[in-house]
Amino acid sequence: MATTNVLNNLKNKYSTTSKTLKIGLFGFGCVGQGIFELLQQSNGVNAEIVKIGIKNTDKKRSIDSRLFTNDSTKILYDSTIDVIIELIDDAAAAYKIVTTAMREGKAVISANKKLIANHLEELLRLQKEFAVPFLYEASVCGSIPIIRNLEEYYNTDYLSSVETICNGTTNYILTKTASEGLTYNRALKEAQDLGFAESDPTLDVQGFDAKFKSIILALHAFGVILKPEDVLNYGIHHLNIADTLFAQENNYKIKLLGKIYRKENEVIAYVAPHFVDDSHEFYNVNNEFNAVQVAAQFAEKQTFIGKGAGSHPTASAVLSDLAALRYDYHYEYKNIGQALDYNPKSLHKVYFRYTNASDLIGLNFLNITKHHQGHELNFIIGEISLEDLIQANLNERESVFLAFF
Fold first, then answer.
1. Which terminus of the chain, N or C, has fewer Cβ atoms within 10 Å?
2. Which CATH number fits domain 146-309+327-404: 3.40.50.11030, 3.90.1640.10, 3.30.360.10, 3.30.870.10?
3. Active-site residue list
4. pLDDT tens track for 157-174
């Protein structure tokens, strides 16, 4: 009986408030529909979607048409709506929705990593100025609860690095080129047919998506605000069979990794393909799966693996944020103020495959350990700075490929 009373007291103390949260949802695509479905099935969140903002109100949908509107003001300025959930692709439109909602005193949940990465300073200021929570777990790695863990679990630990596979499209393509011998273009087409890749896959395959996510993680892990233009992102869209064969002959797999790590009083961050061997925790993370590895002084290395995209996996992260709002949860950004500097001048060992001597213009390789020039394959293995690679804008050079060791 005593145990039952204790449990009941705890349940009453930590139960959600009786008020039903009123939600204004923007976007009813894959994730928007997913959150609508999960709310119908979940017993743990007392919330109701009262209005859904969309572009085309003429499109037939499976739920009550009266829920939909193409007039954002009917949602943003509705005083009965407590929470705005923003799930649209257009980062510029999302910016207007999110900032207006904050100024109206509404809590906001977003999955738009491009919006967040490009406006971090302003979004931090608005949260403080208008005393509103802004949560965005779904913006990074879908169903993997990494932001909340960095905020709460690791906030008393000394973090040394955060490493990710945080783009399911590129991981799927790299898996298929390695395991089935598909060409890059064939693997991309397959990813598009399965819904893992957009019709315009540029943000994914050139590493922009992973960079935006890495910038968000850098804030929560190390308290630094990085500007997208200062962080290297190089993708996989110039991968060819020669690179895949080089990896296989040397017992590597190629993975697009986001790396953020501390070196004394500096933070280094970049996104690029990497050669990983079978001792690496991500070696067998395949297809559309994402992974995050956090290295800390006390907790040491811990790896999270899960689906980084898709209707229900991403919607589950949104639902988790929604549940957290019932306890007035907000990010505290406890790592801001560590006085860490960002260092884009760090040297890194890379493999650089090229076609002509002109492909080497602007690239200052140091400590070259191998320079192979053959009939079908030319490559250099040496060290180069992130700054040189950013300035070279290799994403625009079609006849080269770069991978880090």
1. N
2. 3.30.360.10
3. 213
4. 999 999 999 999 999 999
